[in-house]
Amino acid sequence: MSDPIVAPRPASSVPALPAAQPIDSYPPFWAKRFGPAKFLPTSRAEMDALGWDSCDIIIVTGDAYVDHPSFGMAVIGRVLEAQGFRVGIIAQPDWLSAEPFKVLGKPNLFWGVAAGNMDSMINRYTADRKIRSDDAYTPGGQGGARPDRCSAVYAQRCREAFKDVPIVMGGIEASLRRIAHYDYWSDKVRRSILLDAKADLLLYGNAERAIIEVAHRLAAREPIESITDVRGTAFLRRRHDPSAEGWFELDSTEVDLPGRIDQHINPYLTTGQLATQQGESCALEEAGAFDPGQGAKPIKIVPNPALASKKAALPERSGRIVMPPRDRTVIRLPAYEALKDDPVLYAHANRVLHLETNPGNARALVQRHGEGPGARDVWINPPPIPLSTREMDLVFDLPYARAPHPRYGDAVIPAWDMIRFSVNIMRGCFGGCTFCSITEHEGRIIQSRSEDSILREIKAIRDQVKGFTGVISDLGGPTANMYHLGCKSPEIEAACRKPSCVYPDICSNLNTDHRRLISLYRQARHIKGIKKILIGSGLRYDLAVKSPEYIQELVTHHVGGYLKIAPEHTEQGPLSKMMKPGMGAYDRFKQLFEKYSEEAGKKQYLIPYFIAAHPGTTDEDMMHLAIWLKRNGFKADQVQTFYPSPMATATAMYHSGLNPLKGISRIEGKGERVDIVKGEKRRRLHKAFLRYHDPNNWPLLRDALKAMGRADLIGNGQHHLIPTYQPSTDGGYQSARRKNSTAAGTKTSVVTQGRAKSGGQPPAGRILTQHTGLPPRATGKAPVSTKVHGKKHGPKR
User: Fold this and answer.
1) What pLDDT does 564 receive?
2) 167-169/532-533 β-pairing
3) Beta-ladder partners of 403
């Protein structure tokens, strides 16, 4: 199912994003008189010290409680506190019984349940489905502090503890599992987490706006069953529920149905251009009768005889096409029972879901779960309206303690330790990378803080955070250089249905001006007591090359020797499935990076990341990537293998073998098949190509190269990929999660030898990655690993 071919109104008459109630416009709840707490209470004793007899809302989280705006439970807790509610935190409770969930008593309004900053399954298992031994969000980094499928388990225990208290679940785990989704760990399609958790309401995405409205409506004694109209929420409905009356349902439960063939509206074309593209003409526009002020006035489309030959295969179309208003339209997706064993239907549902992600034009979605009288509809409202800059400032300026709760003593929480000197300046990403879940969670409309708010936080870190030495480790977010970037036209932004603003090329309607970010950097580094501002978030280099001044500013003042970027691959096949730019943009950025580094008198290095085994990657693609790595002197110890996270487009490719970006069809020859890398042997091979320098991988690579007819790459010359000899040592490689280096004394490549000969510096002309062989920083200290708990905290996935 797709949008009908109706010529769009001129951009000037297309509405921008719907208006939303400001988050600070609600009358505060009566408990506002208690004021803010230094830390939200985690025990009865802390509640007593605050003078509370009960909590209005209790948040249960799978992470340790760190009162910092980088931790979701702290943000939601402080936002609700600012509305006047008494909020308690139960962090990482023992889930084997309901007793630990009673520690703060019965919440007056609702439970808030979240797995934490990561999906609990990604947190617990590697891409090879092996159990991790550590957890970056737990004191001491200890693993096993939360259950698998954490949100559902916690919700069930909350129900056992106080069965009549509403359960509102959120966070990234719930967000990405709000609908029937492929689950990599069980290798099957699972139903919506709403049914497994038996929760009353699910909030997806950044949920400040939704949670505030829900809290105030529950405080006004509105039954949670009646809260069905909040954007950014999902809930269960019985079939034919009277509360769903007045909605127009569009059927999208099958593919390749006979009938009208429709295309999606292109917001960049005028009315006449769109009609011409369809081989037709817009009679109203030609007659000068089109009136933008008529709103939903239907447009008559008649055949254009001059282009009729191009449309011979389609039925002749004429007449009035009237679509129901989007805000009262719901799209029915294939039912869970229909798609759980049908990969084609799953890919179709995934495609429709991703087309309904723009809050300016998204429609509600509904998906049946179950059969017979007990069937339920999972109803998903359109995405939330993004926060304005003023609202972002309100959220980030709340009185966070910027520290872990004192109950943890001196125990190190690795995730906190990594970000305690960093500042989040924005949310969202319009990159649309198919392996990434940011769009499904945070959206592609960038939400930026003001410069003043960011500078205030830097000063707060300087004055409040223990151990600060004057170095801010990051000013960033999902992407380092999307601050205050977005569509030039609010009207086009609200109408656009493209999955990416930068693929296959940067959209002409996208503002790529980096001047506000440059100004922010300059103001930040001139704050008294700040010695250095580093940029640790991943950089979108195809955007950066549009602003050479930004690259010069970055390279001259904000790179600590190494800069992380993510080409992901060198070959067009996998890049097209990732929706990533080609290596031409990387080469242009590299030239500017090296130019400005030389002008600044600095020796600095790019740190590129690559993905192995991504859908659409052939063995030959990985071979060519390995050749490129060898030619440029790269040696990667940290290798990222594709991880099929719930709901991502690339995960739909992995499960179905089809490309949802090109449309889905059961008809032979239509749509696009995707080469899927499954099976331990082939995944190991793709990882081995990325680590071509590891002697442990040489036997596997030799066999593969011979089978591929590329034995010419085996030999002992500089132009060969791997040698013919096999050393007696096993290579001595230790997992990068334990030690980011190859064992001392191991001969692995000329890069290491070259460094030894040049006194710790790389040979002339060599480019080194962040892994084995990096020269030491100017301080003489070893580079710090950028990987925490198997999750790279650099280019956001």
Assistant:
1) 85
2) unpaired
3) 67
